[in-house]
Specification:
five-stranded mixed beta sheet
Length: 633
């Protein structure tokens, strides 16, 4: 039982009015003329009778009528079982541990608020990009992490947690409630019918903050003079200021640059002409001096200085010229085209027409070497594609068609070999071998499904097959702009060589390259600890980048990657979310948490009381008519 408007109970003071009126109401006595009252004594009995209440039934009806009206305005309700259960729901105290909580004492205030709300039965949880339960004793050790928070992900996790427990829960959320953590749609914050939400902000205003927002550096370079680093310095809610950016390579400061950052704007600073040793180099650009949020004042990156990757070539000199020029133009000399001798040590082999001993090539491909087969007119006499064994059924000539040339009309847009080369738009084909694809994947084909480009995995290696020659006669592909990006992507695919370095945000996941065996795949976190076991790598488990620093990835066969993990820059804008948005979220969640399936949280009694008041009013009218009639008689 409860009252929604208890202040109306002050109207109970009006009950004194009918009592007062009944005390004043007396029957009129008969008056007679008398000369003098000096011989009469005062009548005490008459005075006492005047103070006694009359018409008690009528008085009771009037008092009941007023009381019922007053209680109806006070809106009494009877709580249902769902509401009583919600009031006794278990409590979950959730603390924001995103990087922005490291500013201006926010984490200290959050720990203090959490300690005040941790009842003996309450659970403690931390959240940034995900929600996780923690031990109560670890509250004093809570510290800001590296991953950005997301209230939509928090709402999803709370819904899943409550559905698993199948009971109401009361959530006390302690956060700085950054504006950047709110989703685009308010519907993503829905918590369900059994979750009540209480919000405790630890930040009231937007603190000024500068950050190294991004760094652009080449993944691989051949010469130190090619190394060039560009950094973007951004300010959020900041005045115009002069900041110092420091470049650090291999644990040593190598350059400093001053940059003028406009109010709440961005500025670019560039570093070049610095020493870079062979192999991987760990680098960073940081701001000096540090500001209120030091976690985003430094941006990590990695670079690799390496010799060109050897690709063996066998075939015509004309095709070799086309391919060599394309690789030098696209890849910046990262791939070196060598002759047939020593092809066993190459990462990939490009065979135009002729091929070394097929058995040896097949064995090398199964061990992981890539192979690009360019079929020419002489391949039709064989009747099959080397290594992969697809059947060649004949040759198609465009001269027999109406237009005089073929064009590629069927593509696999998910393949970078085509998507980054414009889907071979404008390329004309005059002579194409008709190949039955078999188990190979068709990446490009003519309108009648005659394959132009096939891809097939053989063991640990990759085989690409072009069904037309690269002599400038069978097609004009070597003369088209699409040829250069195609050859770059083909070289990367054959060598299974992805970018050796990357810069990712904390909280993201990393997946190994396709075809990497579990024995060779290994990930080391910034502390040098192996992240995944053999069974996890065997089933292709993802790696969660939950720490800032440099992660090393070994993919086998001499392939390594270095991933620089930084604090998510969405945390750099310290502006809190609008107060009305937070109030709307809290009130909506609390109302839903008190209800059950959309039903009202309690049963109102105001209508029943008004009906009773109407009945009391009818009784009062009847009694008053009866008393007045008796007096008249």
């Amino acid at each position: 039982m409860g009252l929604l408007a208890p202040w109306f109970l002050a109207g109970l003071g009006l009950l004194a009015l009918p009592v007062y009126l009944h005390l004043l109401r007396r029957s009129r006595p008969d008056s007679k003329q008398f000369s003098s009252l000096m011989f009469f004594e005062p009548g005490r009995q008459a005075e006492l009778r005047r103070r006694r209440l009359d018409y008690l039934k009528l008085l009771a009806a009037r008092l009941l009528l007023l009381a019922l009206i007053i209680f109806a305005f006070a809106q009494p309700v009877i709580q249902s079982r769902a509401v009583r259960a919600a009031s006794a729901a278990p409590r979950l105290v959730v603390v924001d541990v995103s990087p922005s909580m490291g500013c201006c004492g926010r984490m200290e205030r959050a720990r203090r608020l959490a300690a005040e709300r941790l009842t003996p039965e309450a659970r403690l949880a931390a959240f940034d990009s995900r929600l996780r339960l923690i031990e109560r004793g670890s509250l004093d050790r809570l510290a800001p992490g590296a991953a950005a928070n997301s209230f939509s992900e928090l709402a999803r996790a709370l819904r899943a947690w409550q559905q698993e427990r199948r009971e109401p829960v009361e959530v006390h959320l302690i956060s700085d409630f950054q504006r950047t953590a709110l989703p685009a749609g308010f519907a993503e914050l829905a918590l369900g019918d059994s979750i009540a939400l209480r919000l405790y902000p630890v930040a009231e205003s937007a603190e000024p903050n500068w950050t190294v927002e991004s760094v652009r550096a080449p993944a691989r370079v051949r010469h130190a003079r090619e190394a060039r680093v560009q950094a973007v310095i951004a300010g959020f809610h900041t005045p115009e200021a002069r900041r110092t950016a420091v470049l650090r390579i291999g644990g040593r400061d190598v350059a400093r640059r001053d940059v003028q950052v406009p109010p709440e704007g961005r500025a670019t600073v560039e570093f070049d002409s610095f020493d870079l040793p062979y192999g991987f180099s760990q680098g960073s650009v940081r701001l000096e001096p540090a500001d209120a949020l030091p976690a985003d004042d430094e941006f990590l990156f990695a670079m690799e200085r390496t010799d060109p990757l050897p690709l063996a070539f066998t075939g015509s000199r004309t095709a070799e010229t086309y391919i060599r020029n394309a690789l030098e133009a696209a890849a910046g000399g990262l791939f070196a085209l060598a002759g047939e001798s020593g092809w066993q040590q190459a990462r990939a082999l490009i065979a135009v027409g002729s091929l070394p001993p097929e058995a040896e090539v097949a064995a090398a491909v199964r061990r992981g070497m890539g192979l690009l087969l360019v079929l020419g007119p002489e391949s039709a006499a064989r009747g099959r594609v080397p290594i992969t064994g697809q059947r060649i059924t004949g040759t198609r000539y465009a001269a027999r068609s109406g237009e005089g040339y073929f064009i590629a009309q069927r593509h696999d847009p998910t393949s970078p070999l085509l998507s980054k080369s414009g889907l071979w738009e404008g390329v004309r084909f005059y002579q194409v071998l008709a190949v039955e694809p078999g188990e190979a994947r068709v990446l490009a084909a003519l309108e009648d499904s005659t394959p132009l480009l096939l891809e097939q995995n053989v063991g640990d290696g990759v085989v690409l097959v072009l069904t037309f020659a690269l002599d400038g006669l069978a097609s004009d592909f070597p003369l088209q702009p699409a040829f250069v990006p195609f050859m770059e992507q083909a070289a990367r695919r054959l060598a299974q060589w992805e970018d050796s370095t990357a810069s990712l945000a904390a909280g993201q996941t990393f997946a190994p390259a396709a075809g990497v065996s579990a024995r060779a795949f290994e990930v080391l976190d910034p502390r040098g600890r192996r992240v995944l076991g053999f069974a996890e790598t065997a089933r292709g488990a993802l790696v969660e980048l939950d720490q800032t620093g440099f992660w090393r990835v070994s993919l086998g066969q001499g392939r390594e990657r270095m991933i620089a993990v930084n604090v998510d820059r969405r945390e750099s804008d310290l502006a809190p979310a609008p107060r009305d948005a937070l109030e709307l979220w809290s009130s909506a969640a609390s109302a839903a948490g008190q209800g059950s399936g959309g039903r009202p949280p309690a049963r109102p009694l105001a209508l029943w009381l008004l009906a009773a008041a109407l009945a009391a009013g009818l009784v009062e009218m009847v009694l008053e008519s009866w008393y007045l009639g008796r007096e008249a008689a």
